[in-house]
Write a structure and sequence with these properties.
The protein is mainly α and 252 residues long. It is built from 10 helices and no strands. The protein has helices at 3-12, 15-23, 31-55, 59-105, 107-120, 125-137, 139-149, 160-175, 189-214, 219-248. It is a multi-pass membrane protein.
Length: 252
């Protein structure tokens, strides 16, 4: 680790900075929603372009199909993500109600659960009993502890509308990129497809770099992995379109 990075970490871990950071409410993670929407949007529109090019369709068909699917699939993705996150939210709410009921009906049993949770973490004797007393003295902390330790749930309540919105925005913004070359009238269809392929590849690689940067993993590996996954999906679309064209003749 270089010296500047070490000094930065030392500043971040000063008592005042730690207290300030821990006092801030946790923020919901939106990166996964945006990555989901962005990758799916780019794959959707570029797969249409690749399939249409392989089947011998015209650029106009690519634009019509691409734009129609961009909006329809964007809405579908947003609705699907909304339903998934909403189901997760209901699960968290049900788990919270369950723990509230258990604490009300069998408080000693719930105290024993807390005791065993922290015993598994290595605490014992008087220290363990002090932790149990502290946790169970605050009902909100008690419930949050059970949700985190027993169910593995985050304290941050998921927001279905926000997740759906960011998925839709990323889907539309990123998904339109592979269609842009087909709006340029001066290019031949083959040239438009080549430029679209380059743009799609750059988008896949950039999304991978973003994931690698956020999660502090290998940037090159993250970029190449996302690039290859997106490229494979587009290649399948191209092959299917080409095979259909070969099987049934000129479908333009």
């Amino acid at each position: 680790m270089n010296t500047s990075r070490r000094r930065q970490l030392q500043r971040e871990h000063q008592p005042d900075n730690i207290a300030r950071r821990l006092a801030m409410p946790p923020r919901p993670e939106r990166l996964s929603d945006m990555v989901l929407g962005g990758i799916d949007g780019c794959i959707t529109t570029f797969a249409i372009a690749a399939g249409a090019f392989g089947a011998g369709f015209s650029p106009l068909v690519v634009l019509v199909m691409g734009m129609a699917n961009l909006l329809a699939d964007g809405i579908s993705m947003a609705v699907s993500n909304y339903e998934a996150v909403n189901a997760q939210q209901r699960f968290v709410e049900n788990a919270r109600r369950t723990e509230e009921e258990h604490i009300h009906l069998v408080p000693e049993g719930e105290r024993e659960e807390v005791r065993q949770i922290y015993a598994r973490k290595g605490f014992s004797g008087e220290s363990l009993e002090q932790i149990v007393d502290k946790v169970t003295a605050n009902r909100g902390l008690w419930i949050d502890t059970m949700l985190s330790e027993e169910y593995g749930l985050s304290r941050v309540a998921p927001n279905p509308l926000a997740s759906a919105w960011w998925t839709f925005v990323a889907f539309i913004v990123v998904g339109v990129i592979p269609l842009l070359p087909f709006l340029v009238p001066g290019l031949a269809f083959s040239q438009q497809f080549i430029v679209s392929s380059l743009l799609a590849g750059l988008v896949f690689f950039a999304i991978g770099l973003l994931k690698g940067w956020v999660y502090r993993s290998s940037l090159l590996r993250a970029g190449l992995t996302t690039f290859l996954l997106g490229g494979c999906a587009a290649a399948v679309a191209f092959i299917v379109g080409h095979l259909v064209q070969q099987a049934f003749g000129g479908l333009g």
